[in-house]
Amino acid sequence: MDCRLGCGACCIAPSISSPIPGMPDGKPAGVRCIQLNDNNLCKLFGKPERPAVCHHFKPCPDLCGTTNQQALFNLTELEQISDVHFAG
């Protein structure tokens, strides 16, 4: 599965414990990553400073569903029920 351009759910819903340029302590769950532009596209995509955790995250139908809203819901729910912290 390819990412839906402009979704951004994986850059909003989960907490990320590894440093992100502009967010040296990572980001809490539900907080929009500072590296998302106005179109929900990563400003670091394809750049070496992009965190490894972001590079390794792969979309899948179970997590991403069929809409951006479903992806955000699914990832938020996963974060809440498992207290998952994506680390780089």
Could you characterize what this model shows?
There is one protein chain. 27% of the residues lie in helices and 5% in strands. The protein is built from three helices and two strands. Strands 1-2 form a two-stranded parallel ribbon. The longest helix is centred in the C-terminal third of the chain and has 15 residues, at 68-82.
Key features of this structure:
mainly alpha; two-stranded parallel ribbon; 3 helices; UPF0153_domain; Puta_zinc/iron-chelating_dom
What best-fitting shape do the alpha-carbon axes yield?
globular
| Strand order within the widest beta sheet | 1-2
Distance between the termini: 22 Å
Gyration radius (Cα, Å) is 12 Å
User: Hey, roughly how much beta strand do the residues contain?
Assistant: under 5%
Overall mean pLDDT stands at 91
Return the structural class: mainly alpha
Tally of distinct domains: 1
Low-confidence region ranges: none
Give the count of helical stretches. Answer: 3
H-E order: EHHHE
Helix content: 25-40%
Report on the biggest sheet: 2 strands, parallel
* Secondary structure: number of strands: 2
Question: How is this fold's topology laid out?
Answer:
Blueprint: E1 15-16, H1 52-56, H2 61-64, H3 68-82, E2 85-86
Parallel strand pairs: 1-2
Pfam family, one: CxxCxxCC
Protein name: YkgJ family cysteine cluster protein
InterPro entries: Puta_zinc/iron-chelating_dom, UPF0153_domain
